[in-house]
TrEMBL record, chain B:
This is Branched-chain amino acid ABC transporter permease. CDD domains: TM_PBP1_LivH_like (cd06582). The keyword Membrane applies. Belongs to the binding-protein-dependent transport system permease family. LivHM subfamily. GO terms for cellular component: plasma membrane. It is found in: Cell membrane. The keyword Transmembrane helix applies. Keywords: Amino-acid transport, Cell membrane, Membrane, Transmembrane, Transmembrane helix, Transport. Pfam families: BPD_transp_2. The chain crosses the membrane at residues 6-25, 37-57, 63-84, 96-117, 137-164, 193-217, 223-240, 271-291. InterPro entries: ABC_transp_permease, BCAA_transport_permease. One of its GO terms (molecular function) is transmembrane transporter activity. GO terms for biological process: amino acid transport.
Automatic annotation (TrEMBL), chain C:
Belongs to the ABC transporter superfamily. Keywords: Amino-acid transport, ATP-binding, Nucleotide-binding, Transport. This is ABC transporter-like protein. GO terms for biological process: L-amino acid transport. It comes from Jeotgalibacillus soli. It comes from the Bacteria. SUPFAM superfamilies: P-loop containing nucleoside triphosphate hydrolases (SSF52540). Residues 2-237 form the ABC transporter domain. InterPro entries: AAA+_ATPase (IPR003593), ABC_transporter-like_ATP-bd (IPR003439), BCAA_Transport_ATP-bd_LivF (IPR052156), P-loop_NTPase (IPR027417). The keyword Acetylation does not apply. It holds the Pfam family ABC_tran. The keyword Metal-binding does not apply. One of its GO terms (molecular function) is ATP hydrolysis activity.
Length: 606, 297, 243
């Protein structure tokens, strides 16, 4: 199977496959050419929903709306203004991107079934508009007379285009879109989509703004669907509101789910299935709707990862292979050091407190979770945070990282007031945290998860990423080098290409801590990193935290393993029912009556 | 004066149409209470119920038998939906699974209805009242059909409020939704409560189908989905999970729709409803009367 | 009363419980002592049926129960007070008690619901005074009393309490513990989990110390007390003292 797959994805077989696709129509009947054109259009649709629902996790039940807008935009521009299809496709893509952006403004704020209903409603609105706005869309009568290769009314640069030429146009567009998409999903932006999909909170803790990521996803996805719509209009020569009803939206969704969300090959297969199978089997056509709906019911139960999952196809989300091939041996700016120049110079500066938490209070309803806590932390210092269950340790970390708003008090970091700022903004200032249960993206490899840690350090633009501009590749390579280094440090090298979700629990924790370190934190918050680790893993974690300390990065460490904590920290803070009962050295704590009482329940005569 | 009466009539119509939406919203609420699941097949359920009644009537059964058979069938479909599309998927980290799976069941019913009865709209006979039965109230003539829907909508809201607040079963349902583990430690069969909630929700779809179809005069396989989204708008307007909210939300939506239809254009009616959905979700997702939930980490 | 043999529970790749074997005798207070994450809650949850074991057997009154659903185990007489003061905070005190009574008792007894609840109000007047308030508005101690009362309404033979002292003021802990001793004198068997060893040992007859899902030490009160005094426990909690 693997041998076969390797051969299948070898560049030579890829190129010969593409050449074959170019020559094929010359030997096809017209109806077959048409079928392949529909496959191409469906691929675009499937990739469009794949980007939105598969990668960034935003369900869409009204995707046909984007398809419709693209089709009507292109069609009216061609009919009324006589514009060339090349121009109308571009306009349809841009206009649709704009519509997608507009929809994202409300849509980025809602989740789950609310979003599902909202997109369903969006689909209905657009369909209503298409039906009612008859002066432009032709209403229920539809719009006919669209220049089409089928009727010989379509011109490419003054030459009358035939079906084969139109096929080539579609083919070129599909290939270019696929190439751009591949570059995109393998860039830091593409990875951020999956991070948002897995957990918005965890994405935010790495400096990713879920709102912006979703906005980009809607914009790009809508734009691709727009291109598909424009191609569809010219293929059919006639469009009516029925072509863009809910069933169409469902069809698009099925292509994505059945093919396999989150891969690039899957949707191609899903599109092929929905294009060719109903066409070849009359029986299926009769029961098309029923079969589609049954597919919806069973797909998540039996093939949650679609065809791609069945074939064990996965799309890599980093450009390691691409870089190894083309730009070898670029001198590294940072001489292979994990932290770059800027970072270490920052660390050499003063030893004044970097974090100041002043008289912070947190109330949940009537319950006071944290009462008047004040801490200050200097560079290179490790602060241990301990206390019985429910004493407010995690709450404190959640306040510093901006997950909860504070009820009273102030938090300053590096001289800036960060009280009640958004989590991703705080993360961009360099406060990076981990969670009690590992928040890695389970469907990403270890390497890709670690790359996610470096997200906030990337500077390449969207265009540079999708066009694989040289400087963006170099940036990706730099980050990959850092990732490789830290994998060696944590003994993760052997698992680089393993999916994070398949790793043993302890290793997942290590990946999360390593990921946080790769974000070049200026303050690291570790919430129970040792929970569930074996002795050996504990030692490794110990080494990793010491490494961080040696870099001068201050750390706040919550944990229950006292041996582990006391061996690491410079200072310790003990919380009980939301208040500080002890603050100072470890030795002092072990003799402190309050602490002993809090942990053992009695005054202890030791 | 004529204008004022016209407006009154529109508002009355809106309230009555709105109580249809609130019937659907109640249906959403019941399963939402127990599982936080919104059944995306609820609209097709409603459509299928109308179709079933029509079929049983055409066989020659009297109304009462047709209704009983319909209610029985939809309960079974409700149980199947819960077993197939909800139970196995509700615990997965994303909601995409159960959304897609319940939607799939809905579309299957829609496809089945199309296969059996054709895609065209079928005439639905009058139930209890004729569409020409009017009573004059406050100078405007009110359709008895609409009044029946309004009365049923109000009645169901009252019953649901009573059941939820006063009976042990309502308390058990609330308990299951609040903390299923604790509920089972207290001896409540959490799974059965969930199944019962899906049956009740399906029955409500049955009632809605019975009352709405005579007003529309005809039913087509695709009318369920559209009206379902309107019912969802009502539920969201009133705040998901609130019985009073469902009623008020439904009526608010109905009145806005009718006013838009009367003064601007009837073709804009539904469009406005969908626009309200998008707006309310974006601005105040907890609904006009809902309470904001606290995010947990 | 309760026999646990070779119990093993895995959460994904983690072993939450490893080969736990214990014999709980009738009419005794048994303490499960351990730090956070040692597996105390998992053990109690497995006994009450909230968690399915991956391996091992649990027999209660001579009957294998590991495959019986939670609701049925409740009817067999296993009461469970879960960790973190869980109650239906959005429902009134009275409704919490009503739910606690109704579903765990056979039909003929249900008629006496109000009678039974009134007995509770007599015993804890504070609950009676606040019976119409939302349970979430009670203080921590009152909530704990309410939870235990609700559990008692099913008249369990075996009561599991998961860290009942958590976050309570010492004086209220005393109250709760006094209540437990009363229950024991009425013939109930109790298993209590505690983070604080000394606290648990105040009332328990037998103690088990759990570390990373395994029972590392067990014995009667005097044995465990001697461990506590010799600093053997202190290090478990506070780390090995660096001198």
């Amino acid at each position: 199977m693997n041998m076969f797959k390797e051969r299948l994805f070898h560049p030579i077989s890829k190129i010969s496959f593409i050449i074959l696709l170019f020559i094929a129509p010359l030997f096809f009947s017209d109806s077959n050419i048409q079928l392949f054109i529909f496959w191409g259009i469906n691929i675009l649709l499937a990739q469009s929903i794949n980007l939105l629902s598969g990668f960034s996790g935003q369900i869409s039940l009204g995707h046909a709306a984007f398809y419709a807008i693209g089709a009507y935009t292109s069609a009216t521009l061609m009919i009324h203004f006589g514009l060339s299809i090349f121009i109308t496709i571009v306009i349809a893509a841009i206009f649709n991107a704009f519509v997608g952006f507009l929809l994202s403004i409300p849509a980025r704020r809602v989740k789950e079934f609310y979003l599902a209903m909202m997109t369903l409603g969006f689909g209905f609105i657009i369909q209503e508009i298409v039906k009612e706005w008859s002066s432009v869309t032709g209403g229920v009568m539809g719009l006919s007379g669209i220049p089409s290769a089928k009727l010989g009314t379509l011109n490419f640069f003054g030459i009358q285009a035939n079906m084969v030429m139109y096929y080539w146009l579609v083919l070129v567009i599909v290939i270019v879109t696929m190439w751009l998409l591949k570059n995109f999903v393998q860039s830091y932006m593409g990875r951020s989509f999956l991070a948002v999909h897995r957990s918005e909170l965890s994405a935010e803790s790495l400096g990713i703004s879920p709102g912006s990521a979703k906005q980009l996803a809607y914009t790009l996805s809508a734009s691709i669907a727009g291109i598909a719509g424009a191609l569809y209009a010219s293929q059919m020569a006639y469009i009516g509101s029925n072509s863009f009803d809910m069933m169409q939206s469902i069809g698009i969704l099925i292509m994505g789910i059945l093919g396999g969300f989150g891969t690039l090959i899957g949707p191609i297969l899903g599109a092929a299935f929905l294009t060719f199978v109903p066409n070849k089997l009359q029986f299926i056509q009769d029961f098309q709707l029923m079969i589609y709906s049954l597919l919806l019911v069973i797909s998540f139960l039996f093939i949650p990862n679609g065809f791609a999952g069945l074939l064990k196809i996965r799309t890599s989300l980093e450009k390691g292979n691409r870089i190894n091939k083309s730009i070898k041996a670029i001198p590294l700016k940072n001489d292979g050091k994990l932290l770059n120049e800027k970072q270490s110079s920052f660390l050499k500066k003063s030893f004044s407190p970097i974090l100041n938490v002043k008289e912070v209070v947190k109330d949940f309803g009537g319950l006071r979770a944290l009462n008047d806590v004040t801490i200050s932390l200097s560079k290179g210092q490790i602060l241990g945070l301990i206390g019985p269950n429910g004493s407010g340790k995690s709450t404190l970390v959640n306040l510093i990282s901006g997950v909860y708003p504070v009820s009273k008090g102030e938090i300053h970091f590096n001289g800036k007031d960060i009280t009640n700022m958004a989590t991703h903004s705080i993360a961009r200032y360099g406060i990076i945290r981990t969670f009690q249960d590992p928040h890695n993206v389970p469907t990403m490899t270890v390497k890709e998860n670690l790359l996610l840690g470096t997200h906030r350090l990337f500077k390449s633009s969207l265009l540079a990423c999708t066009l694989n501009a040289n400087h963006s590749l170099r940036e990706e390579e730099q980050m990959l080098t850092r990732v490789t280094e830290i994998m060696e440090l944590c003994d993760l090298t052997d698992y680089a290409d393993e999916l994070a979700g398949n790793l043993p629990y302890g290793m997942q924790r290590m990946v999360e801590v390593a990921r946080a370190i790769l974000a070049e934190p200026q303050l690291l918050l570790l919430d129970e990193p040792a929970a569930g680790l074996s002795e050996g893993e504990l030692e490794e974690l110990n080494r990793l935290i010491r490494y961080v300390k040696n870099q001068g990065i201050p750390v706040i460490l919550i944990d229950h393993h006292m041996d582990f904590v006391t061996g690491l920290v410079d200072e310790i803070l003990v919380l009980e029912s939301g208040g500080v009962i002890y603050s100072g050295s470890v030795e002092g704590m072990q003799k402190d009556h309050h602490v002993i009482r809090a942990y053992l329940g009695v005054e202890h005569h030791a | 004066m004529i204008d004022f009466q016209f407006m009154l009539e529109l508002i009355f119509m809106g309230i009555c149409v709105g109580s249809v939406y609130s019937l659907i919203a109640h249906g959403f609420n019941i399963t939402f209470w127990t599982t936080k699941v919104v059944n995306f097949a609820h609209g097709p359920f409603l459509m299928f119920c109308s179709m079933l009644i029509l079929m049983f009537l055409s066989i020659g059964f009297p109304w009462i038998v047709a209704i009983l058979l319909e209610m029985f069938s939809i309960s079974i479909i409700g149980v199947i939906l819960e077993r197939v599309s909800v139970r196995p998927l509700v615990k997965s980290p994303t909601s995409m699974g159960w959304i897609v799976a319940t939607l799939g069941v809905g579309l299957f019913l829609q496809a089945l209805a199309t296969k059996i009865w054709g895609a065209q709209a079928l005439a639905f006979p009058a139930f209890i009242f004729e569409s020409t039965d009017y009573v004059p109230i406050l100078g405007i003539s009110m359709s008895l059909q609409y009044l029946l829907v309004l009365g049923t909508g109000l009645g169901i809201m009252l019953i649901m409020e009573l059941v939820m607040k006063k009976t042990i079963w309502g308390k058990a349902m609330k308990a299951v939704s609040f903390d299923p583990d604790l509920a089972s430690v207290m001896g409540i069969k959490s799974k059965s409560v969930v199944t019962i909630s899906f049956i009740l929700s399906a029955l409500l779809a049955g009632v809605a189908g019975l009352l709405i179809a005579p007003i529309y005069g005809n039913v087509a396989p695709d009318f369920g989905m559209n009206i379902m989204v309107l019912g969802f708008v009502a539920a969201v307007l009133g705040g998901m999970g609130s019985s009073k909210g469902a009623l008020i939300g439904g009526m608010t939506l109905g009145v806005i729709e009718k006013l838009v239809g009367g003064y601007i254009s009837t073709s804009a009616e539904h469009g406005v409803a969908f626009a309200i959905l998008i707006l309310i979700l974006a601005i105040k997702p907890e609904g006009l009367f809902g309470i904001k939930a606290v995010q947990k980490v | 009363m309760l026999e646990i043999k070779n119990l093993q529970v895995n959460y994904g790749p983690i072993n939450a419980l490893k080969e736990v074997t214990m014999t709980i005798e009738k009419n005794k207070i048994n303490a499960i002592i351990g730090v956070n994450g040692a597996g105390k809650s998992t053990l109690l949850n497995t006994i009450s049926g909230l968690v399915d074991p991956d391996q091992g057997e649990i027999s209660y009154k001579g009957r294998q129960i590991q495959n019986i659903p939670v609701e049925k185990r409740v009817k067999l007489g296993i009461g469970h007070v879960m960790e973190g003061r869980r109650l239906f905070k959005d429902q009134s005190v009275h409704d919490n008690l009503l739910i606690g009574f109704y579903f765990r008792n056979p039909k003929e007894k249900r008629r006496n619901a109000l009678l039974k609840i009134n007995e509770i109000y007599k015993q804890f007047p504070i609950l009676g005074n606040k019976q119409n308030q939302m349970a979430g508005t009670l203080s921590g101690g009152q909530q704990q009393i309410l939870i235990i009362s609700a559990a008692l309404l099913s008249e369990p033979d075996l009561l599991l309490l998961d860290e009942p002292s958590l976050g309570l003021a010492p004086i209220i802990i005393d109250e709760v513990y006094q209540l437990l001793e009363e229950l024991k004198s009425k013939g109930m068997t109790i298993i209590i989990s505690e983070q604080m060893a000394a606290l648990a040992l105040r009332i328990s007859d037998v103690g088990y110390i759990l570390e990373r899902g395994q029972v590392v030490k067990k014995g009667d009160r005097s044995y465990l007390k001697s461990l506590l005094d010799s600093d053997g426990l202190s290090s478990v909690y506070l780390g090995k003292a660096k001198v």
